[in-house]
Amino acid sequence: MTYAQSILPEFDQEMANTRKVLELVPEDKFDWQATESTHTLGWNANHLADILSWAAPTLVNDSFDVHPPGGEMYQTPTLATTKEILELFDKNVTEARAALEEAVDEKMGEPWSLLQQGETLMTMPRAAVIRGFVMNHIVHHRAILITYLRLNGISAPGMYGPGDSAAS
Known about the structure:
Elements (H helix, E strand, L loop, with lengths): L2 H20 L18 H10 L4 H6 L2 E3 L16 H20 L9 E6 L2 E7 H26 L4 E2 L6 E2 L3
Parallel strand pairs: 1-2
Antiparallel strand pairs: 2-3, 4-5
Helix pairs in contact: 1-4, 1-5, 2-4, 2-5
């Protein structure tokens, strides 16, 4: 079984679940925060839509510098409508899935590094980066977004079984 064959079923399920949650994001709550020290609901939705943009570069490059020397620091998008967020998410799903389909098995165990200002922050096998910093990161921020929706009285769909979860 290739790397693509092993990860794509999970990828497809997680992306379908994530889209269901993003569809529920109310534009009038983009500025809502659970506490003063947390990101807004809108920031989390934007970040969730953007995380997948890291997949293709991870599969073809040996590193990513979040703030390259002399360059701009990576910024989460600031899209202002649910429609724009869904469009970005859908574009990134399409590009990430295509990159995963083309993943070279032999490269998945090779080291990949996250850099800041040219300094290595961490190095992991490429497959671990896709699993941890892309897939698990999506699940993490989706859970935050579901919590924010529930705190605003919006029911969230079940992720791994039948039925909806009631808003608390």
